[in-house]
Amino acid sequence: MKKRYSHIRIETKKVATDALNGTSRAPIMSEPELTNDDVLDLLSAGLDPSVVVAKIKSSPCAFRTSIDDLKKLKTQSIPDSVIKAMLSSRT
Predict the structure, then answer these.
(1) Phi-psi region for residue 14, left (φ > 0), alpha (ψ -120 to 50) or beta?
(2) Cα–Cα nearest to 62, from 85, 86, 42
(3) What is the dihedral of CA 43, 45, 50, 51, to 10 degrees?
(4) Domain residue spans in the chain?
(5) Residues near 46 by Cβ (< 8 Å), separated by ≥ 6?
(6) What angle do CA 3, 26, 57 make, to 5 degrees?
(7) In this predicted model, what pLDDT tens digit does every residue of 15-71 receive, in sequence order?
(8) pTM value?
(9) Coil, strand, or helix at residue 85?
């Protein structure tokens, strides 16, 4: 017996119709928000700070930027350019 996957086609059609009507639903797969720990992980993995800044600029972010958090970032050797990008990131 051949599977038809009609439920997938129906859902895809609903999403496309909603998008055309301007009543789009929440995205099926949304990108998770970047956090302070994510930035630290990227830099620890050896990525260049300019790459991390580009990722910050193109991603939803949920950074903690209190005075204590900024001090912690600096003691963890996060470059100033990355910290500045975190401060001006979109939420």
Answers:
(1) alpha
(2) 86
(3) -130
(4) 36-87
(5) none
(6) 120
(7) 777 777 776 555 556 789 999 999 999 999 999 999 999 999 999 999 999 999 999
(8) 0.67
(9) helix
